[in-house]
């Protein structure tokens, strides 16, 4: 869960997370000063990217082109219908009200069916119920929506908007790359930390084994029946033994053993009954020290043979390369 939140610190720096994710990430940053410092560096990087490039001059003729397109582009209608211009209401007069001159004015000619006289002025119109409408004055001509001038945005503000959008895009790309790189670096650091922990554990294990060997050696040296011997190995090298039968402890040090073919290894045996030798260890040709703690009463012989990798249940007779009496 912590790793998932850490991977969102780049998005957090760009404000590209929702409220729940932001609260979760900020809680994580409060608990992890190292992650918080990294997240702050993401924000600083984004700001630096936004200011790192010089403004680009717009193409020649851009202003004239924009203004020309604004004049030709139909604008959206008003959102509120109440804002639209209203035509004046018609008035109703009785059929016998006044003379034709009084109704339409002398010398203006008869009115047409829509209340407009032949000379272009408005007169009265006849309703279907026999009454007449007295039209008001002609409203002033209202320009069509497509003929109305559009809102002109100052070129400086347009340039600033374009520049901000471009820098935000550049910052987002740069911050994304930084976030990915930071996540990869964080993962690599965690991997190195795990490797270091494994090395420490191996060292501690080796130290514990060394301490155990030293304790066994101290026990053997303090025993009343301490004994030592060296067993030569065919082809070179030897096994040096330090042991105590009474305490059931033995330390075997190998040195200079011949290298073996692939798929072969040395196998050590303790023999009490020649018919039932007991395997006590398998080993490579590398110099090493083995500590054995077991009952040794009745053991008379130590032998080493060359066996297939993984060992055998009993020594191969013609593969015995070392044998010594205890």
Automatic annotation (TrEMBL):
<keyword id="KW-0804">Transcription</keyword>
<keyword id="KW-1003">Cell membrane</keyword>
<feature type="domain" description="Anti-sigma-K factor RskA N-terminal">
    <location>
        <begin position="8"/>
        <end position="47"/>
    </location>
</feature>
<dbReference type="GO" id="GO:0005886">
    <property type="term" value="C:plasma membrane"/>
</dbReference>
<dbReference type="Pfam" id="PF22618">
    <property type="entry name" value="RskA_N"/>
</dbReference>
<keyword id="KW-0805">Transcription regulation</keyword>
<dbReference type="InterPro" id="IPR041916">
    <property type="entry name" value="Anti_sigma_zinc_sf"/>
</dbReference>
<feature type="domain" description="Anti-sigma K factor RskA C-terminal">
    <location>
        <begin position="168"/>
        <end position="318"/>
    </location>
</feature>
<dbReference type="InterPro" id="IPR018764">
    <property type="entry name" value="RskA_C"/>
</dbReference>
<dbReference type="Pfam" id="PF10099">
    <property type="entry name" value="RskA_C"/>
</dbReference>
<dbReference type="InterPro" id="IPR053877">
    <property type="entry name" value="RskA_N"/>
</dbReference>
<feature type="region of interest" description="Disordered">
    <location>
        <begin position="76"/>
        <end position="152"/>
    </location>
</feature>
<dbReference type="GO" id="GO:0006417">
    <property type="term" value="P:regulation of translation"/>
</dbReference>
<protein>
    <recommendedName>
        <fullName>Regulator of SigK</fullName>
    </recommendedName>
</protein>
<feature type="compositionally biased region" description="Low complexity">
    <location>
        <begin position="83"/>
        <end position="100"/>
    </location>
</feature>
<feature type="transmembrane region" description="Helical">
    <location>
        <begin position="167"/>
        <end position="188"/>
    </location>
</feature>
<feature type="compositionally biased region" description="Gly residues">
    <location>
        <begin position="101"/>
        <end position="112"/>
    </location>
</feature>
<feature type="compositionally biased region" description="Basic and acidic residues">
    <location>
        <begin position="116"/>
        <end position="132"/>
    </location>
</feature>
<keyword id="KW-0472">Membrane</keyword>
<keyword id="KW-0812">Transmembrane</keyword>
<dbReference type="InterPro" id="IPR051474">
    <property type="entry name" value="Anti-sigma-K/W_factor"/>
</dbReference>
<dbReference type="GO" id="GO:0016989">
    <property type="term" value="F:sigma factor antagonist activity"/>
</dbReference>
<keyword id="KW-1133">Transmembrane helix</keyword>
